[in-house]
């Protein structure tokens, strides 16, 4: 059985820290908590779980803080979390099993990161991250913000998931760090360009986000998954600014970098749906369902675009084309994923009324409910 050091960097996390540490109780052999300037009860709560609490002066550099924490670990492997992350019960069981069975030849273990769920508990956004690494390898974190752990060697992709369960977020923090770096005249790497553009988009600064997404793509040095994602995010920015044609062109440009992805197929389908080109829209939503699932992808995965959403939109398309039985079948598939979604329930009632009617149907005032990608 391997030994595990859990490393966290924290600041004012009194509302979530105990929940996080409870989820690894009995799994981690030691807990390292690095505090970057809390003024609440964070350190007091941490002291109930560990005596290994250290202060680190915050210098607007996440990698520096995480590397400091890793430097305090003494176990064979290092596990890292944020204070608002947890292991659900089933993942705790799998982590204990991994701890008992992991080969010492493995250098790094990746786990899913569940970022959001719908009202029924289905994961809607996820990605993979390296979570458990061999301490002897002395892997280092890189990047002041949106940092990543540079690893190599024997890797294992596990089915364990870390669940992000944030109760609050300093939404300006990352943008502030990037803009301070720009003000100092720092040259951004392609990765920086991409993540800075993401921050701009998240703050509805669409024109500037477009500028930096294009700079990132024109560098031709980005990771292929980030290239694909940047095209989709460009499409969303153009759509938010009301330029549907550029939104379409941006989504289509993602095909330069690889096979069609479900989310970009849904974006293209939505363009045609809004243009009342229902056969074209149906083609692209069907394409979203046929697109290869990125099960092991390390980029962000919007699972809605490969599950219930295309079926809901196909329901709309086939209704508009007068193929009501086909529309009903797609809505039923969507309902299997999202049984309480208001659009799905609306469509079910509407279509059952059509299919059960023996009279000529007056549909002039009837419409189905649809959802943007």
Automatic annotation (TrEMBL):
Name by which UniProt lists this protein: Glycosyltransferase involved in cell wall bisynthesis
Domain of life, per lineage: Bacteria
Transmembrane segments: none
SUPFAM superfamilies (alphabetical): Nucleotide-diphospho-sugar transferases (SSF53448), TPR-like (SSF48452)
Gene3D superfamilies noted in UniProt: Spore Coat Polysaccharide Biosynthesis Protein SpsA, Chain A, Tetratricopeptide repeat domain
Domain (Glycosyltransferase 2-like): residue spans on this chain: 5-126
InterPro entries (UniProt xref): Glyco_trans_2-like (IPR001173), Nucleotide-diphossugar_trans (IPR029044), TPR-like_helical_dom_sf (IPR011990)
GO molecular function annotations of the record: transferase activity
